[in-house]
Design brief:
The chain has 13 helices and 15 strands. By secondary structure, it is an alpha/beta fold.
């Protein structure tokens, strides 16, 4: 495993901003509101060609407005215990605060390499005044300004120097195991996304609460199954735009939807006891637009069974309200009872295999010709629409180009018909299929 570096400190000293600066991209949500970060948000980075996992944590001593302080402190405690190196971040402008002293006392009892990072030293004058932090007795002190990008390189050099002294991995170890699938969890608030992530990870990796809006960021959590590495991406529960109350909620929503782009398979989650909302229909439409494999996950199915809900009737209910996802399989699960969890991961693997499949040109043209016997394309005035031949040009999603005399003569309705015909006879029946009509060169339009 890579060395783990935990960024700790009181609220609003710039921990999340520091993680983003080290990563050179936005990993954690940054906002002036104290206590935005609750869970452990991590990213793998390289320092002098050695990979490390860098973890952002919630502010120590935060008073959470949703009474989740205990959960946040538990996440921080896990980070402290599992870390190999600690970055203790303080605020150069505000100077030493009582909470800084409390954290310093706690850190003295931990026998691990520590670097004191004095942030917000935006100019030489403030940097000179930051010498008061030397009273903490840290051997390694770096003054930086994340906003001003001052001394970030010096901090990276210091981190590299510290981790160089840590035990090196065994050269005989297997090469790094790369994730085979990234699974994004999408859905409304409180459908069980975080609970599912924790169940797959086998630990309380993200905070779970009955309080709505517990998860604020998009959090990548690695887990192993069948000797393979996966990444589950937990996301904030989505709300109507009119219900988004502040800046960080807006970023939470954006980050959640942004996970669609970097996921391989989308796990679209619903609560079996609730009616499907307009928001969920819109989320399903976004999933369709992504052209990514998707699984419709119905959580809390154990409670639905207790209420006498019939599986076939509920499946019909889903299909009627989510017609755009007619191709997507449905998985009925109970995170609480661990019902069908790993079967769902097997299903995700199967969908990934489907979306990477190819069909040979001869078989593809046979399927298209059979479709033409079932239903011919519409006429445009006196002209007949003609299909000449087809070929698959790519995977993820399977993309088929059909050469025709005039692409404008093939409406979306007929394209959907051909897609359905392909589903029935191709090796990718449960994943999105893209069809492109292309005019054959030097063709007659009669």
């Amino acid at each position: 495993m890579h060395p783990l570096i935990a960024i700790i400190g009181r609220p609003n000293v710039g921990k999340s901003s520091l993680l983003n600066a080290l990563a050179k991209r936005r990993i954690s949500i940054v906002d002036d509101t104290p206590g935005i970060t609750r869970d452990r948000v991590s990213v793998t980075l390289e320092f002098n060609e050695r990979k490390c996992e860098v973890v952002d944590t919630g502010g120590i001593g935060i008073i959470d407005n949703q009474d989740l302080s205990v959960h946040v402190e538990q996440q921080i405690a896990v980070a402290l215990e599992s870390a190999d190196v600690l970055l203790f971040v303080v605020d150069a402008i505000e100077g030493i605060r009582a909470l800084d002293k409390h954290i310093c006392t706690k850190l003295r009892k931990i026998d691990k390499p520590k670097i004191l990072v004095v942030n917000k030293a935006d100019n030489p004058k403030i940097e000179a005044e930051a010498t008061e932090f030397y009273e903490f007795g840290f051997e390694d002190i770096i003054t930086i300004s994340v906003i001003g990008r001052r001394n970030i390189g010096d901090l990276r050099d210091k981190i590299a120097e510290v981790i160089e002294k840590l035990p090196q991995p065994d050269e005989n170890d297997d090469a790094e195991l790369l994730p085979i699938l990234r699974l994004s969890m999408l859905g409304r608030r409180n459908v069980g996304k975080s609970s599912l992530v924790n169940a797959l990870a086998g630990e309380k990796r993200v905070i779970v609460s009955e309080i709505e809006g517990t998860t604020r960021d998009a959090i990548d959590v690695e887990f192993m199954y069948d000797d393979k590495k996966f990444v589950a991406i937990d996301t904030a529960g989505l709300r109507r735009k009119s219900a988004v109350e502040n800046t960080f909620e807006f970023y939470s929503q954006s980050r959640a939807l942004g996970t669609i782009k970097r996921s391989d398979v989308i796990l679209l989650m619903f609560d079996a006891r609730n009616e499907i909302s307009d928001l969920e229909k819109k989320l399903a439409a976004r999933t369709v637009e992504s052209i990514k494999p998707a699984i419709i996950i119905v959580n809390k199915w154990d409670l639905a069974l207790e209420e006498g809900i019939d599986v076939l009737e509920y499946e019909k209910y889903l299909r009627d309200r989510l017609p755009g996802l007619a191709f997507a399989p449905i998985s009925f699960i109970s995170v609480k009872n661990r019902l069908n969890l790993w079967e769902t991961i097997d299903l995700a693997q199967d969908l990934w295999q489907q979306t990477n499949q190819r069909i040979n040109t001869g078989e593809l043209n046979r399927i298209i010709n059979n479709a033409l016997q079932v239903r011919k394309p519409p006429r445009l005035g006196t002209r007949n629409a003609k299909i000449y031949y087809s070929t698959q040009i790519s995977v993820t999603p399977p993309t088929v180009v059909i050469f025709v005399n005039n692409p404008q003569m093939f409406p979306n309705e007929y394209k959907r018909f051909l897609v359905n015909q392909l589903r029935e006879s191709s090796p990718f029946p449960e994943v999105p299929i893209r069809i492109i009509f292309r005019k054959r060169q030097h063709d007659e339009e009669t």
